[in-house]
């Protein structure tokens, strides 16, 4: 999904709530030069989300 | 539609709610040099929306 | 009307609500070098509005 | 009055509400090189206001 | 007091409310090169305040 | 404590409320070149706080 | 965890609340050139959090 500040995070969606707070497994932060940063399980605050795509 | 940070996303509107959260099918992010990024079905957080146009 | 980020949009006001969400017909985004972008009917989120002038 | 982004708007205060939304008559946007932009009657969203001075 | 965007305003505090909206008499905007801008009585929106100091 | 915009303020915590509004005695704004600005007693709006450390 | 403005803070999570306000022990601010800044116990305001990862 795309988050504010032009960053992109990908992972397996495990849960969410009404504020679009998300729990992702095996999450990775995508870096523009192609080298991704593995993050493990993350809790992402909903107000940083721009959009969610599969 | 136009979103914050000067980006533009187009797609078929499938649903929305009171906060202007939107579900779009066959969405694409428009890039200024003419090459669009296909996103598939996206959920777009309403507080990133600037305006919606057909 | 003037919106955040220095942009200006003009159109015929068709409706509004308490959050200053606006519906505009025949809207145009004014560009500083004088070439306007026609947008048709738009829904503009109120929290992007700076001021509305006739 | 001073608004966010370093801009300044002057006019005759006609009305306001609890959110500091303001209605100004004969409003002008002050430009730093001394040439003001006349705006007529404007509705200014309160959350763009930094301060109001006479 | 210090406000967002690195600006500083000084004046005699005449009133305030729960949102830290402030009324200041004889207010001045402090400019970094030492020349202050007199503002008279101002109403300052609380959400622009960073801190208040004597 | 660290506040938004990369600034840091230190002082003796005298009080706080649910919004993390803080009252500090003998506060100082830390400047990167090592020369601190004494502020006396300050009221700091909670929404500018990033984190509080001893 | 990642916070707004590209900063990263690590520590042992001691507590949290519904707004994602966090209490961290032995917290450190990670600096890009590899030299971390020890912060001790910190209270981090939830609205600065982008995501939390282990």
TrEMBL record, chains A, B, C, D, E, F, G:
Task: Recite the UniProt keywords alphabetically.
Answer: Ribonucleoprotein
Q: Which SMART domains match?
A: Sm
InterPro entries, per the entry? Lsm7/SmG-like, LSM_dom_sf, Sm, Sm_dom_euk/arc
According to its record, what are the GO cellular component terms? ribonucleoprotein complex
In what residue span(s) does the Sm domain sit? Answer: 1-54
GO molecular function: any one? RNA binding
In the record, the note on similarity to other proteins reads: Belongs to the snRNP Sm proteins family.
Q: What protein am I looking at?
A: Like-Sm ribonucleoprotein, eukaryotic and archaea-type, core
